[in-house]
Design brief:
The structure holds two protein chains of two kinds. Chain A is 43% helix and 16% strand. Chain A is α/β, with parallel strands linked by helices. Chain A has a six-stranded mixed sheet with strand order 3-4-5-1-6-7, sandwiched between helices. In chain A, helix 3 crosses helix 4 (110-123) and helix 4 (110-123) packs parallel to helix 5. The radius of gyration of chain A is 18 Å and the shape is globular. Chain B contains 15 helices and one strand; from the N terminus they run H-H-E-H-H-H-H-H-H-H-H-H-H-H-H-H. The chains are: A alpha/beta, B mainly alpha. Chains A and B meet through strand 2, helix 2, helix 3, helix 5 and strand 6 of A and helix 1, helix 2, strand 1, helix 4 and helix 8 of B.
Chain lengths: 214, 351
Protein backbone atom coordinates (compact mmCIF):
# COMPACT_ATOMS: atom_id res chain seq x y z
CA UNK A 1 0.00 0.00 0.00
CA UNK A 2 1.54 3.35 -0.98
CA UNK A 3 2.34 5.72 1.89
CA UNK A 4 1.74 8.78 -0.32
CA UNK A 5 -0.60 9.24 -3.28
CA UNK A 6 -0.87 12.13 -5.73
CA UNK A 7 1.18 14.40 -3.55
CA UNK A 8 2.41 17.25 -5.67
CA UNK A 9 3.68 20.66 -4.64
CA UNK A 10 6.42 23.20 -5.11
CA UNK A 11 8.29 24.85 -2.28
CA UNK A 12 9.70 28.27 -3.26
CA UNK A 13 13.22 29.03 -2.13
CA UNK A 14 13.41 30.93 1.13
CA UNK A 15 10.09 29.68 2.40
CA UNK A 16 9.19 27.48 5.35
CA UNK A 17 6.76 24.70 4.56
CA UNK A 18 5.06 23.23 7.59
CA UNK A 19 3.70 19.71 7.23
CA UNK A 20 1.03 18.55 9.68
CA UNK A 21 -1.00 15.40 9.94
CA UNK A 22 -1.74 12.47 12.18
CA UNK A 23 0.67 9.66 12.91
CA UNK A 24 1.01 7.47 9.85
CA UNK A 25 -0.23 10.16 7.47
CA UNK A 26 2.99 9.91 5.45
CA UNK A 27 4.88 12.94 6.80
CA UNK A 28 8.19 11.18 7.42
CA UNK A 29 7.87 9.25 4.16
CA UNK A 30 7.45 12.59 2.41
CA UNK A 31 10.67 13.94 3.93
CA UNK A 32 12.57 10.76 3.17
CA UNK A 33 11.37 10.86 -0.41
CA UNK A 34 12.44 14.48 -0.79
CA UNK A 35 15.94 13.67 0.39
CA UNK A 36 16.23 10.63 -1.84
CA UNK A 37 16.24 7.98 0.88
CA UNK A 38 13.04 6.42 -0.43
CA UNK A 39 12.46 6.22 -4.18
CA UNK A 40 8.97 7.10 -5.43
CA UNK A 41 6.94 4.37 -7.14
CA UNK A 42 5.54 6.95 -9.53
CA UNK A 43 6.25 10.56 -10.35
CA UNK A 44 9.31 12.67 -9.92
CA UNK A 45 10.94 14.68 -7.19
CA UNK A 46 13.22 17.52 -8.20
CA UNK A 47 15.41 19.05 -5.52
CA UNK A 48 17.39 22.18 -6.28
CA UNK A 49 19.98 22.71 -3.62
CA UNK A 50 22.02 20.94 -0.97
CA UNK A 51 19.81 18.98 1.37
CA UNK A 52 20.09 18.22 5.03
CA UNK A 53 17.60 15.95 6.75
CA UNK A 54 17.26 16.18 10.45
CA UNK A 55 15.59 13.51 12.46
CA UNK A 56 16.97 13.81 15.97
CA UNK A 57 18.58 10.70 17.31
CA UNK A 58 18.75 8.86 14.03
CA UNK A 59 22.21 8.62 12.59
CA UNK A 60 23.93 9.64 15.80
CA UNK A 61 26.31 7.17 17.38
CA UNK A 62 25.33 6.61 20.99
CA UNK A 63 28.76 5.60 22.26
CA UNK A 64 30.50 8.62 20.76
CA UNK A 65 30.75 12.05 22.30
CA UNK A 66 28.79 15.02 21.05
CA UNK A 67 31.99 16.44 19.54
CA UNK A 68 32.69 13.22 17.63
CA UNK A 69 29.12 13.13 16.37
CA UNK A 70 29.46 16.70 15.10
CA UNK A 71 32.62 15.67 13.25
CA UNK A 72 30.99 12.61 11.69
CA UNK A 73 27.85 14.51 10.73
CA UNK A 74 29.96 17.23 9.17
CA UNK A 75 32.23 14.86 7.24
CA UNK A 76 29.19 13.00 5.93
CA UNK A 77 27.85 16.33 4.68
CA UNK A 78 31.12 16.92 2.86
CA UNK A 79 32.74 19.41 5.27
CA UNK A 80 36.52 19.52 5.68
CA UNK A 81 38.02 18.91 9.12
CA UNK A 82 39.32 22.48 9.31
CA UNK A 83 35.94 23.96 8.58
CA UNK A 84 34.34 21.65 11.11
CA UNK A 85 36.83 22.63 13.78
CA UNK A 86 35.81 26.23 13.17
CA UNK A 87 32.09 25.64 13.63
CA UNK A 88 32.17 23.04 16.41
CA UNK A 89 32.28 25.69 19.15
CA UNK A 90 29.43 27.53 17.53
CA UNK A 91 27.35 24.35 17.37
CA UNK A 92 28.15 23.56 21.01
CA UNK A 93 27.10 27.03 22.05
CA UNK A 94 23.93 26.91 19.98
CA UNK A 95 22.98 23.53 21.43
CA UNK A 96 23.71 24.89 24.93
CA UNK A 97 25.76 21.80 25.74
CA UNK A 98 28.94 23.40 27.19
CA UNK A 99 31.13 20.74 28.83
CA UNK A 100 28.66 17.96 27.95
CA UNK A 101 29.90 18.10 24.36
CA UNK A 102 32.71 15.74 25.40
CA UNK A 103 30.35 13.22 26.99
CA UNK A 104 28.99 10.22 25.07
CA UNK A 105 25.58 10.87 23.52
CA UNK A 106 24.07 7.95 25.44
CA UNK A 107 24.43 10.04 28.61
CA UNK A 108 22.38 12.89 27.10
CA UNK A 109 18.77 13.60 27.89
CA UNK A 110 16.28 13.57 25.02
CA UNK A 111 16.28 17.36 25.00
CA UNK A 112 20.08 17.55 24.76
CA UNK A 113 20.17 15.08 21.87
CA UNK A 114 17.48 17.01 20.08
CA UNK A 115 19.31 20.31 20.62
CA UNK A 116 22.55 18.84 19.28
CA UNK A 117 20.76 17.40 16.24
CA UNK A 118 19.10 20.70 15.41
CA UNK A 119 22.32 22.62 15.96
CA UNK A 120 24.37 20.36 13.68
CA UNK A 121 21.80 20.34 10.91
CA UNK A 122 21.29 24.09 11.04
CA UNK A 123 25.01 24.86 10.94
CA UNK A 124 26.03 22.54 8.12
CA UNK A 125 25.23 25.06 5.45
CA UNK A 126 22.06 23.45 4.15
CA UNK A 127 20.27 25.12 1.30
CA UNK A 128 17.25 23.00 2.09
CA UNK A 129 16.70 21.84 5.64
CA UNK A 130 14.21 19.06 6.28
CA UNK A 131 13.23 18.85 9.92
CA UNK A 132 11.23 15.96 11.33
CA UNK A 133 9.57 16.41 14.70
CA UNK A 134 12.61 18.19 16.05
CA UNK A 135 11.00 21.17 17.60
CA UNK A 136 8.43 19.65 19.87
CA UNK A 137 10.87 18.47 22.52
CA UNK A 138 12.83 21.58 23.45
CA UNK A 139 12.03 23.96 26.26
CA UNK A 140 10.59 27.41 25.61
CA UNK A 141 13.99 29.13 25.56
CA UNK A 142 15.37 26.72 22.99
CA UNK A 143 12.21 26.97 20.92
CA UNK A 144 12.75 30.72 20.71
CA UNK A 145 16.42 30.14 19.89
CA UNK A 146 15.65 27.74 17.05
CA UNK A 147 12.88 29.97 15.70
CA UNK A 148 15.39 32.76 15.38
CA UNK A 149 17.90 30.46 13.68
CA UNK A 150 15.28 29.28 11.23
CA UNK A 151 14.27 32.83 10.47
CA UNK A 152 17.96 33.62 9.83
CA UNK A 153 18.30 30.65 7.50
CA UNK A 154 15.20 31.61 5.57
CA UNK A 155 16.43 35.16 5.44
CA UNK A 156 19.52 33.86 3.69
CA UNK A 157 17.38 32.22 1.06
CA UNK A 158 17.40 28.73 2.51
CA UNK A 159 14.29 26.61 2.38
CA UNK A 160 12.90 24.67 5.30
CA UNK A 161 10.42 21.83 5.35
CA UNK A 162 9.20 21.32 8.87
CA UNK A 163 7.28 18.23 9.88
CA UNK A 164 5.84 18.54 13.34
CA UNK A 165 2.94 17.91 15.66
CA UNK A 166 3.67 21.29 17.25
CA UNK A 167 0.96 23.27 15.49
CA UNK A 168 2.11 26.52 17.06
CA UNK A 169 5.53 26.04 15.41
CA UNK A 170 3.80 25.75 12.06
CA UNK A 171 1.66 28.82 12.75
CA UNK A 172 4.57 31.00 13.80
CA UNK A 173 7.36 29.79 11.53
CA UNK A 174 5.83 28.46 8.33
CA UNK A 175 5.06 30.57 5.29
CA UNK A 176 3.02 27.73 3.81
CA UNK A 177 1.60 24.54 5.19
CA UNK A 178 0.42 21.17 4.02
CA UNK A 179 -1.95 18.88 5.85
CA UNK A 180 -1.32 15.27 4.92
CA UNK A 181 -4.10 12.81 5.54
CA UNK A 182 -3.80 9.12 4.74
CA UNK A 183 -1.04 9.82 2.25
CA UNK A 184 -2.84 12.60 0.41
CA UNK A 185 -2.70 16.36 0.54
CA UNK A 186 -5.86 17.33 2.41
CA UNK A 187 -5.00 21.03 2.44
CA UNK A 188 -2.19 23.24 1.21
CA UNK A 189 -1.81 26.95 1.66
CA UNK A 190 -1.76 29.51 4.41
CA UNK A 191 -0.53 27.93 7.67
CA UNK A 192 -3.35 29.46 9.76
CA UNK A 193 -5.97 28.04 7.41
CA UNK A 194 -4.35 24.65 7.08
CA UNK A 195 -3.89 24.30 10.83
CA UNK A 196 -7.48 25.44 11.41
CA UNK A 197 -8.79 22.84 8.96
CA UNK A 198 -6.63 20.16 10.52
CA UNK A 199 -7.83 21.07 14.00
CA UNK A 200 -11.46 21.17 12.88
CA UNK A 201 -11.06 17.72 11.37
CA UNK A 202 -9.32 16.39 14.50
CA UNK A 203 -12.13 17.76 16.71
CA UNK A 204 -14.81 16.26 14.46
CA UNK A 205 -13.04 12.98 14.53
CA UNK A 206 -12.64 12.91 18.30
CA UNK A 207 -16.35 13.82 18.62
CA UNK A 208 -17.30 10.95 16.36
CA UNK A 209 -15.07 8.62 18.36
CA UNK A 210 -16.82 9.72 21.55
CA UNK A 211 -20.17 9.18 19.82
CA UNK A 212 -19.09 5.70 18.73
CA UNK A 213 -17.88 4.94 22.23
CA UNK A 214 -21.10 6.26 23.74
CA UNK B 1 10.46 42.05 -3.30
CA UNK B 2 8.12 39.52 -1.83
CA UNK B 3 6.63 38.77 -5.18
CA UNK B 4 10.02 38.23 -6.74
CA UNK B 5 10.22 34.88 -5.06
CA UNK B 6 9.20 32.40 -7.65
CA UNK B 7 8.78 28.69 -7.35
CA UNK B 8 11.70 26.57 -8.38
CA UNK B 9 10.05 26.14 -11.70
CA UNK B 10 10.43 22.43 -11.84
CA UNK B 11 7.02 21.96 -13.33
CA UNK B 12 5.81 19.91 -10.39
CA UNK B 13 2.73 20.55 -8.41
CA UNK B 14 -0.28 22.73 -8.63
CA UNK B 15 -0.61 26.26 -7.40
CA UNK B 16 -0.83 26.26 -3.63
CA UNK B 17 -4.03 28.24 -3.22
CA UNK B 18 -6.13 25.95 -5.36
CA UNK B 19 -5.63 23.19 -2.85
CA UNK B 20 -7.29 25.06 -0.07
CA UNK B 21 -10.55 24.66 -1.90
CA UNK B 22 -10.02 21.13 -2.96
CA UNK B 23 -9.02 20.08 0.48
CA UNK B 24 -12.37 19.61 2.20
CA UNK B 25 -13.59 17.41 -0.63
CA UNK B 26 -10.72 15.01 -0.01
CA UNK B 27 -12.00 14.37 3.45
CA UNK B 28 -15.64 14.83 2.75
CA UNK B 29 -16.02 17.88 4.99
CA UNK B 30 -18.97 20.23 4.62
CA UNK B 31 -18.88 22.12 1.29
CA UNK B 32 -18.43 25.89 1.39
CA UNK B 33 -20.20 28.54 -0.66
CA UNK B 34 -18.25 29.95 -3.66
CA UNK B 35 -18.28 33.50 -2.22
CA UNK B 36 -16.95 32.26 1.09
CA UNK B 37 -14.28 30.28 -0.76
CA UNK B 38 -13.13 33.35 -2.68
CA UNK B 39 -13.02 35.45 0.47
CA UNK B 40 -10.98 32.80 2.24
CA UNK B 41 -8.63 32.54 -0.70
CA UNK B 42 -8.04 36.30 -0.79
CA UNK B 43 -7.48 36.34 2.97
CA UNK B 44 -4.98 33.48 2.74
CA UNK B 45 -3.11 35.14 -0.10
CA UNK B 46 -2.87 38.43 1.87
CA UNK B 47 -1.50 36.58 4.88
CA UNK B 48 1.00 34.66 2.74
CA UNK B 49 2.30 37.84 1.17
CA UNK B 50 2.62 39.46 4.58
CA UNK B 51 4.70 36.55 5.87
CA UNK B 52 6.99 36.49 2.88
CA UNK B 53 7.42 40.24 3.17
CA UNK B 54 8.37 39.82 6.83
CA UNK B 55 10.96 37.20 5.89
CA UNK B 56 12.35 39.51 3.25
CA UNK B 57 12.74 42.22 5.85
CA UNK B 58 14.76 39.77 7.92
CA UNK B 59 17.08 39.27 4.95
CA UNK B 60 17.97 42.93 5.11
CA UNK B 61 18.38 42.98 8.87
CA UNK B 62 19.99 39.56 9.36
CA UNK B 63 23.32 39.87 11.16
CA UNK B 64 26.27 39.08 8.89
CA UNK B 65 27.79 36.82 11.53
CA UNK B 66 25.80 33.77 10.57
CA UNK B 67 28.21 30.85 10.07
CA UNK B 68 26.52 29.36 7.09
CA UNK B 69 25.97 31.80 4.32
CA UNK B 70 25.48 31.07 0.71
CA UNK B 71 27.99 32.34 -1.78
CA UNK B 72 27.19 35.92 -2.61
CA UNK B 73 24.27 35.83 -0.18
CA UNK B 74 22.07 37.14 -2.92
CA UNK B 75 20.08 34.03 -3.47
CA UNK B 76 22.85 32.10 -5.23
CA UNK B 77 22.73 28.39 -4.68
CA UNK B 78 25.15 25.56 -5.07
CA UNK B 79 23.65 24.52 -8.38
CA UNK B 80 22.99 21.03 -7.09
CA UNK B 81 19.97 19.51 -8.76
CA UNK B 82 18.82 16.06 -7.80
CA UNK B 83 16.01 14.26 -9.54
CA UNK B 84 14.50 11.24 -7.84
CA UNK B 85 12.51 8.97 -10.07
CA UNK B 86 10.81 5.62 -9.60
CA UNK B 87 13.26 2.95 -8.55
CA UNK B 88 14.78 0.86 -11.25
CA UNK B 89 17.28 -1.92 -11.03
CA UNK B 90 19.54 -0.26 -13.58
CA UNK B 91 23.19 0.17 -12.69
CA UNK B 92 24.02 3.75 -11.66
CA UNK B 93 26.83 5.48 -13.56
CA UNK B 94 29.97 4.03 -12.02
CA UNK B 95 32.29 6.99 -12.29
CA UNK B 96 30.14 9.52 -10.35
CA UNK B 97 29.32 6.78 -7.85
CA UNK B 98 32.99 6.04 -7.28
CA UNK B 99 33.73 9.76 -7.03
CA UNK B 100 31.07 10.32 -4.41
CA UNK B 101 32.49 7.37 -2.44
CA UNK B 102 35.98 8.83 -2.77
CA UNK B 103 34.70 12.20 -1.51
CA UNK B 104 33.53 10.45 1.62
CA UNK B 105 36.79 8.62 2.32
CA UNK B 106 37.55 10.84 5.29
CA UNK B 107 34.14 10.09 6.75
CA UNK B 108 34.70 6.35 6.31
CA UNK B 109 38.05 6.46 8.08
CA UNK B 110 36.75 8.67 10.91
CA UNK B 111 33.66 6.53 11.34
CA UNK B 112 35.82 3.40 11.48
CA UNK B 113 38.17 4.99 14.02
CA UNK B 114 35.28 6.24 16.13
CA UNK B 115 33.70 2.79 16.14
CA UNK B 116 36.94 1.19 17.23
CA UNK B 117 37.41 3.80 19.97
CA UNK B 118 33.89 3.17 21.22
CA UNK B 119 34.47 -0.56 21.35
CA UNK B 120 37.81 -0.25 23.11
CA UNK B 121 36.45 1.97 25.82
CA UNK B 122 34.16 -0.79 27.08
CA UNK B 123 36.94 -3.29 28.01
CA UNK B 124 39.96 -2.99 30.29
CA UNK B 125 42.48 -4.24 27.72
CA UNK B 126 40.78 -2.31 24.92
CA UNK B 127 42.47 -2.67 21.55
CA UNK B 128 44.96 -5.26 22.89
CA UNK B 129 42.14 -7.78 22.49
CA UNK B 130 42.41 -7.32 18.74
CA UNK B 131 45.85 -8.94 19.00
CA UNK B 132 45.32 -11.24 21.99
CA UNK B 133 42.29 -12.94 20.52
CA UNK B 134 43.95 -14.29 17.35
CA UNK B 135 47.06 -15.18 19.36
CA UNK B 136 45.00 -17.28 21.78
CA UNK B 137 43.30 -18.91 18.82
CA UNK B 138 46.66 -19.65 17.20
CA UNK B 139 47.86 -21.16 20.51
CA UNK B 140 44.81 -23.42 20.73
CA UNK B 141 45.03 -24.62 17.12
CA UNK B 142 48.77 -25.13 17.44
CA UNK B 143 48.15 -27.36 20.44
CA UNK B 144 45.44 -29.23 18.57
CA UNK B 145 47.58 -29.64 15.49
CA UNK B 146 50.54 -30.91 17.53
CA UNK B 147 48.32 -33.49 19.22
CA UNK B 148 46.78 -34.69 15.95
CA UNK B 149 50.10 -34.85 14.16
CA UNK B 150 51.75 -36.47 17.19
CA UNK B 151 54.40 -33.82 17.44
CA UNK B 152 55.36 -33.75 13.76
CA UNK B 153 56.50 -30.38 12.34
CA UNK B 154 55.41 -28.49 15.42
CA UNK B 155 57.60 -25.38 15.39
CA UNK B 156 58.07 -24.52 11.76
CA UNK B 157 54.33 -24.10 11.19
CA UNK B 158 53.63 -21.80 14.15
CA UNK B 159 54.40 -18.51 12.34
CA UNK B 160 52.23 -19.58 9.36
CA UNK B 161 49.42 -20.38 11.76
CA UNK B 162 49.69 -17.00 13.51
CA UNK B 163 49.91 -15.05 10.24
CA UNK B 164 47.07 -17.07 8.72
CA UNK B 165 44.76 -16.45 11.66
CA UNK B 166 45.46 -12.70 11.65
CA UNK B 167 44.68 -12.55 7.93
CA UNK B 168 41.66 -14.84 8.15
CA UNK B 169 40.13 -12.77 10.93
CA UNK B 170 40.37 -9.79 8.63
CA UNK B 171 38.77 -11.75 5.78
CA UNK B 172 35.88 -12.84 7.99
CA UNK B 173 34.93 -9.21 8.60
CA UNK B 174 33.68 -9.08 4.99
CA UNK B 175 31.26 -11.83 5.82
CA UNK B 176 30.20 -10.99 9.36
CA UNK B 177 30.36 -7.29 10.12
CA UNK B 178 30.35 -5.87 6.59
CA UNK B 179 27.66 -8.36 5.62
CA UNK B 180 25.44 -6.97 8.38
CA UNK B 181 26.45 -3.35 7.77
CA UNK B 182 23.35 -2.34 5.82
CA UNK B 183 21.03 -3.70 8.48
CA UNK B 184 23.23 -2.22 11.21
CA UNK B 185 23.40 1.17 9.52
CA UNK B 186 19.63 1.62 9.50
CA UNK B 187 19.84 4.96 11.30
CA UNK B 188 22.20 6.48 8.75
CA UNK B 189 20.39 4.83 5.89
CA UNK B 190 17.04 6.39 6.78
CA UNK B 191 18.56 9.69 7.74
CA UNK B 192 20.53 10.67 4.71
CA UNK B 193 21.19 9.96 1.13
CA UNK B 194 24.71 8.74 0.29
CA UNK B 195 26.21 5.98 -1.83
CA UNK B 196 25.15 2.96 0.20
CA UNK B 197 28.39 1.10 -0.50
CA UNK B 198 29.87 3.48 2.05
CA UNK B 199 28.49 1.29 4.86
CA UNK B 200 30.20 -2.03 4.00
CA UNK B 201 33.35 -0.17 2.98
CA UNK B 202 33.44 1.64 6.33
CA UNK B 203 33.31 -1.74 8.05
CA UNK B 204 36.16 -3.03 5.88
CA UNK B 205 38.10 0.09 6.74
CA UNK B 206 37.53 -0.67 10.42
CA UNK B 207 38.81 -4.21 9.82
CA UNK B 208 41.99 -2.91 8.18
CA UNK B 209 42.62 -0.44 11.02
CA UNK B 210 42.20 -3.28 13.49
CA UNK B 211 44.50 -5.49 11.41
CA UNK B 212 47.41 -3.04 11.06
CA UNK B 213 48.92 -3.51 14.55
CA UNK B 214 48.91 -7.29 14.03
CA UNK B 215 51.41 -6.84 11.15
CA UNK B 216 53.99 -5.68 13.68
CA UNK B 217 53.14 -8.51 16.06
CA UNK B 218 53.44 -11.05 13.23
CA UNK B 219 56.79 -9.62 12.10
CA UNK B 220 58.06 -10.07 15.64
CA UNK B 221 56.97 -13.75 15.71
CA UNK B 222 58.40 -14.31 12.23
CA UNK B 223 61.83 -13.13 13.36
CA UNK B 224 61.70 -14.74 16.81
CA UNK B 225 60.78 -18.15 15.37
CA UNK B 226 63.54 -17.85 12.78
CA UNK B 227 61.09 -18.25 9.90
CA UNK B 228 62.58 -18.03 6.40
CA UNK B 229 62.67 -14.69 4.65
CA UNK B 230 62.26 -15.27 0.92
CA UNK B 231 61.73 -12.99 -2.05
CA UNK B 232 58.12 -14.17 -2.07
CA UNK B 233 57.52 -11.66 0.75
CA UNK B 234 57.59 -8.95 -1.90
CA UNK B 235 54.34 -10.40 -3.22
CA UNK B 236 52.57 -9.94 0.12
CA UNK B 237 51.34 -6.39 -0.61
CA UNK B 238 49.91 -7.57 -3.96
CA UNK B 239 48.10 -10.45 -2.27
CA UNK B 240 46.87 -8.13 0.46
CA UNK B 241 45.36 -5.73 -2.08
CA UNK B 242 43.70 -8.68 -3.84
CA UNK B 243 42.35 -9.80 -0.48
CA UNK B 244 40.81 -6.34 0.06
CA UNK B 245 39.22 -6.42 -3.40
CA UNK B 246 37.85 -9.90 -2.73
CA UNK B 247 36.56 -8.75 0.67
CA UNK B 248 34.82 -5.76 -0.91
CA UNK B 249 33.12 -8.10 -3.39
CA UNK B 250 32.04 -10.51 -0.64
CA UNK B 251 30.85 -7.65 1.58
CA UNK B 252 28.72 -6.12 -1.19
CA UNK B 253 27.22 -9.49 -2.10
CA UNK B 254 26.49 -10.62 1.44
CA UNK B 255 25.14 -7.29 2.65
CA UNK B 256 22.66 -7.21 -0.25
CA UNK B 257 21.65 -10.82 0.41
CA UNK B 258 21.06 -10.14 4.11
CA UNK B 259 18.74 -7.21 3.30
CA UNK B 260 16.59 -9.27 0.94
CA UNK B 261 16.78 -12.59 2.81
CA UNK B 262 17.13 -11.89 6.53
CA UNK B 263 17.62 -15.62 7.11
CA UNK B 264 20.96 -15.30 5.37
CA UNK B 265 22.10 -13.43 8.48
CA UNK B 266 21.71 -16.63 10.51
CA UNK B 267 23.49 -18.76 7.94
CA UNK B 268 26.53 -16.47 7.87
CA UNK B 269 28.13 -17.84 11.02
CA UNK B 270 28.04 -21.37 9.62
CA UNK B 271 29.43 -20.23 6.28
CA UNK B 272 32.24 -18.53 8.19
CA UNK B 273 33.02 -21.70 10.09
CA UNK B 274 32.99 -23.84 6.94
CA UNK B 275 35.30 -21.35 5.22
CA UNK B 276 37.67 -21.48 8.18
CA UNK B 277 38.06 -25.23 8.07
CA UNK B 278 38.26 -25.44 4.28
CA UNK B 279 40.91 -22.73 4.02
CA UNK B 280 44.56 -23.66 4.62
CA UNK B 281 44.93 -21.60 7.79
CA UNK B 282 45.25 -24.11 10.60
CA UNK B 283 46.89 -26.89 8.58
CA UNK B 284 49.83 -26.94 6.19
CA UNK B 285 49.11 -27.34 2.49
CA UNK B 286 51.09 -30.54 2.25
CA UNK B 287 48.76 -32.48 4.56
CA UNK B 288 45.84 -32.06 2.15
CA UNK B 289 45.40 -35.10 -0.14
CA UNK B 290 45.49 -34.05 -3.82
CA UNK B 291 41.88 -35.13 -4.46
CA UNK B 292 40.56 -32.97 -1.61
CA UNK B 293 42.78 -30.09 -2.63
CA UNK B 294 41.22 -30.14 -6.10
CA UNK B 295 37.78 -29.74 -4.52
CA UNK B 296 38.87 -27.14 -1.98
CA UNK B 297 40.48 -24.99 -4.62
CA UNK B 298 36.96 -24.04 -5.71
CA UNK B 299 36.52 -22.27 -2.40
CA UNK B 300 37.03 -18.48 -2.83
CA UNK B 301 39.59 -18.10 -0.04
CA UNK B 302 41.61 -21.25 -0.77
CA UNK B 303 43.97 -19.89 -3.41
CA UNK B 304 44.55 -16.70 -1.41
CA UNK B 305 45.52 -18.48 1.80
CA UNK B 306 47.48 -21.17 -0.02
CA UNK B 307 49.53 -18.34 -1.54
CA UNK B 308 49.98 -16.68 1.86
CA UNK B 309 51.16 -19.98 3.30
CA UNK B 310 53.73 -20.47 0.54
CA UNK B 311 55.07 -16.95 1.05
CA UNK B 312 55.23 -17.06 4.85
CA UNK B 313 57.05 -20.37 4.57
CA UNK B 314 59.75 -18.79 2.43
CA UNK B 315 58.47 -19.88 -0.99
CA UNK B 316 56.89 -18.17 -3.99
CA UNK B 317 53.34 -19.14 -4.99
CA UNK B 318 52.68 -20.53 -8.47
CA UNK B 319 51.52 -18.09 -11.11
CA UNK B 320 48.40 -20.21 -11.57
CA UNK B 321 47.60 -19.86 -7.87
CA UNK B 322 48.03 -16.08 -8.03
CA UNK B 323 45.81 -15.96 -11.12
CA UNK B 324 43.14 -17.87 -9.25
CA UNK B 325 43.26 -15.26 -6.47
CA UNK B 326 42.95 -12.51 -9.06
CA UNK B 327 40.01 -14.24 -10.73
CA UNK B 328 38.15 -14.70 -7.44
CA UNK B 329 38.78 -11.08 -6.42
CA UNK B 330 37.61 -9.57 -9.71
CA UNK B 331 34.73 -12.04 -10.06
CA UNK B 332 33.37 -11.32 -6.59
CA UNK B 333 33.78 -7.58 -7.00
CA UNK B 334 31.84 -7.72 -10.26
CA UNK B 335 29.02 -9.82 -8.80
CA UNK B 336 28.96 -7.72 -5.60
CA UNK B 337 28.77 -4.42 -7.50
CA UNK B 338 26.02 -5.71 -9.78
CA UNK B 339 23.90 -6.95 -6.89
CA UNK B 340 24.52 -4.08 -4.54
CA UNK B 341 24.32 -1.12 -6.90
CA UNK B 342 21.24 -2.40 -8.69
CA UNK B 343 19.33 -2.79 -5.45
CA UNK B 344 20.70 -0.17 -3.09
CA UNK B 345 17.72 2.15 -3.60
CA UNK B 346 15.47 -0.50 -2.10
CA UNK B 347 17.53 -0.88 1.07
CA UNK B 348 15.78 1.89 2.98
CA UNK B 349 12.43 0.21 2.38
CA UNK B 350 13.60 -3.17 3.56
CA UNK B 351 15.81 -2.64 6.59
Amino acid sequence: MPALRDVSFTVPRGSVLGVVGRNGAGKSTLLRSICGVLAPDEGRIVVRGRLNLLEPGLGMKQNLTGRENIKLGGLAAGFSEDRLAAITEEITEFAQLDEFIDYPIRAYSMGMRMRLGVAVAAHLDPEILLIDEALTGGDAAFQAHISQKMADLCGEGRTIVLVTHGLSSVRTMATEAIWLHQGQVAAHGDPEDVVAQYLRYSRLESMSTEYDDG
Amino acid sequence: MADDRTPNGNGLGRAPDTELDEAPSVLGAAPTLPAERKRRKRRAERRRRRRVAERSKQVETAPPTSPARLAGDDGDWSGEVQVFEPKTSAMPALRPYARSLWDRRQFMVEMAKADLRGRRSSTVFGSVWGILDPLFQAGIYYLLFTIIREGARPVDFLHVLIGGIFLFQLALIALNEAGQSIKGGKGLLLNSSFPRAMLPLTTLCKGVLKFLPTVGVYAMFHLLLGAPIGRGLLLLPVLFVLQLVLMAGIALTVSTAVVFFPDAGNAIQYVGRILFFTTPVIYPLDVIPPGIRAVLSWQPLFALFASYQEILDGGVPDVSLMLQVLAWAIGFLFVGCQLFLRHEREFALRV
